[in-house]
Design a protein that fits this description.
Helices cover 24% and strands 38% of the residues. It has helices spanning 39-51, 66-69, 99-117; strands at 2-15, 18-23, 26-32, 55-56, 62-64, 72-77, 122-123, 130-145. Strand 1 (2-15) and strand 2 (18-23) form a beta hairpin.
Amino acid sequence: MKAVVQRVSKASVTVEGKKISEIGWGVLILLGIEDADTKDDIAWLSRKIANLRIFNDETGVMNRSLLDIEGQVIVVSQFTLHASTKKGNRPSYIKAAKPEVAIPLYEEFVLQLEKDIGKQVGTGVFGADMKVALSNDGPVTIIIDTKNR
């Protein structure tokens, strides 16, 4: 499981012209799921993100977590995070999980993150053509791969 965690001052997801998720200060998470991912990956990644100290304290040092600031979250499914560009110019998505595997894991990740942060998490629409808008705060962007613990 791969996640691109972006600290944002605001973010939103729009599908077919309708805004379906919108947050203020917090994180936008692009989540890529592969066939080898398990519930252990979900639990580990959710805890890691909830406790990741990427928000400034009163001295300007990144020493506060999403939990500390009571920040908001949007999670967007992003199968292209598993693109292989090793050969040729057309990315291969062979490692990305098929929807029948990815959707339940994505939904479980969202539920686990809601438990870990104690609030509702915004989402995109799995497989939809989404327009994701954000104001990256910092910018701060962290890439986490559960296979590299």
